[in-house]
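Page 37, continued from 36.
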């Protein structure tokens, strides 16, 4: 699945598949070898008893019958229990396994070969481990009595067989406990892997959500800084053109309509750039100073408020143009800051004049950045200033976020002669961006 919203779901599915692959598939493959091994041990034991020559026909066929019952019980209960971990089937098979082994051993000493499979199967099937310990002891005791019964069930024979069975039981318990510990570690590994995969899926979902939110905020900010301001200008100029037509001033109305057309074209270009994720249209193929000059000229044409642009001394040492920071993202921040500052002048200031000053501090004389060069943009007006609370408005908040993203600073304060002063500092290298 390719959609971003479905990615966490796919990741979660991958986690479950991985756990199944780690736990189920290898275990199923191992159980097949347990099946083959058990059948081979039974067949080899039967062959050894037939070739040994120390067992009469009746005892031999009794042992064969006991081993046949064990094989049938394994097919019915043992093998399914090994795969499903069903303890009721496992216990039922264990009873047949212990009884069948004891009967077979009582018919001939070579039947003790069955103990290799019997002790192992107890630990493979029974849970928790204490059940396997009890079953191992029962199997060992039953086998001891079976060996004693083979020779008439006298006490000396039982005493002789007891140490051997004690060693067998101890070996079985120790080996079984090691096996159980290994299985627990395997289960723990599978559980941890499942938790890791699930955490990765949740993290991917969280990162996706954060990315979507950040992208929405970025797009909203772009629209606010470009299209919204352009449409505001279109509405204002259209109203001015209507008023001019009502007064019969056709030439004045034509001028306003030309400004509307130019602004609408710029907005269309900005919209296409946003859709294509390109750099802002005013910076495509031009320097920051040139883009600011066009911005100032358009503001003057739209509002009638003169804008003085000062870019003297802001030429980049690299020769890339006046006011260039050497980083496209920082140039965009400065251009958007100028646009927002002029938009606030239009909406709130009632200014008679505006000044835009772009300078480059090559030696860090202000000391704000420890001697590192930066580019400074100042927009000042002689209006009545921002109303209370406007500093936290959408436009200035977005401007502050943009500036911070490139490692710069923003200051909004009253001007020396009244009005408002907006000052933006960004590193000439582009900062964090």
């Amino acid at each position: 699945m390719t959609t971003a919203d479905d990615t966490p779901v796919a990741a979660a599915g991958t986690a479950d598949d991985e756990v199944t692959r780690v736990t189920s598939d290898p275990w199923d493959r191992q159980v097949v070898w347990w099946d083959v091994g058990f059948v081979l041990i039974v067949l080899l034991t039967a062959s050894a008893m037939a070739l040994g020559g120390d067992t009469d026909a009746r005892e031999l066929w009794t042992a064969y019958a006991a081993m046949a019952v064990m094989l049938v019980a394994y097919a019915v209960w043992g093998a399914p229990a090994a795969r499903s971990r069903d303890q009721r089937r496992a216990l039922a098979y264990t009873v047949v396994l212990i009884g069948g082994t004891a009967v077979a051993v009582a018919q001939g000493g070579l039947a003790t070969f069955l103990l290799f499979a019997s002790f192992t199967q107890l630990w493979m099937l029974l849970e928790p481990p204490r059940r396997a310990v009890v079953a191992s002891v029962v199997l060992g005791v039953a086998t001891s009595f079976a060996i004693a019964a083979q020779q008439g069930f006298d006490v000396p024979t039982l005493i002789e067989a007891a140490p051997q069975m004690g060693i067998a039981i101890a070996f079985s318990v120790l080996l079984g406990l090691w096996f159980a510990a290994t299985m627990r570690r395997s289960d723990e590994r599978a559980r941890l892997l499942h938790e890791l995969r699930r955490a990765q899926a949740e993290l991917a979902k969280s990162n996706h959500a954060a990315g979507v939110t950040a992208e929405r905020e970025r797009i909203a900010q772009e629209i606010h800084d470009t299209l919204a301001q352009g449409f505001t200008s279109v509405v204002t100029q259209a109203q001015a053109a209507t008023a001019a037509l009502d007064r019969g001033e056709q030439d004045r109305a034509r001028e306003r309509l030309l400004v509307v057309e130019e602004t609408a074209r710029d907005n269309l270009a900005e919209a296409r750039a946003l859709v294509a994720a390109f750099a802002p249209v005013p910076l495509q193929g031009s320097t920051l100073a040139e883009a600011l000059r066009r911005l100032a000229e358009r503001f003057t044409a739209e509002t009638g408020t003169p804008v003085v642009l000062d870019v003297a001394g802001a030429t980049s040492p690299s020769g890339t143009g006046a006011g260039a920071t050497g980083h496209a993202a920082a140039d965009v921040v400065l251009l958007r800051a100028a646009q927002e500052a002029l938009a606030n002048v239009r909406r709130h200031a009632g200014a008679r004049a505006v000044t835009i000053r772009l300078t480059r501090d090559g030696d860090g004389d202000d000391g704000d950045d420890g001697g590192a060069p930066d580019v400074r943009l100042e927009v000042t007006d002689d209006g009545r200033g921002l109303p209370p609370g406007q500093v936290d408005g959408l436009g200035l908040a977005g401007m502050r976020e943009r500036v911070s993203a490139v490692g710069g600073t923003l200051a909004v304060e009253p001007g020396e002669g009244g009005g408002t002063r907006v000052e933006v500092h960004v590193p000439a290298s582009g900062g964090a961006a």
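Residues 4-202 form one domain. Flag for discussion at group meeting. The chain has two domains: 4-202, 282-433.
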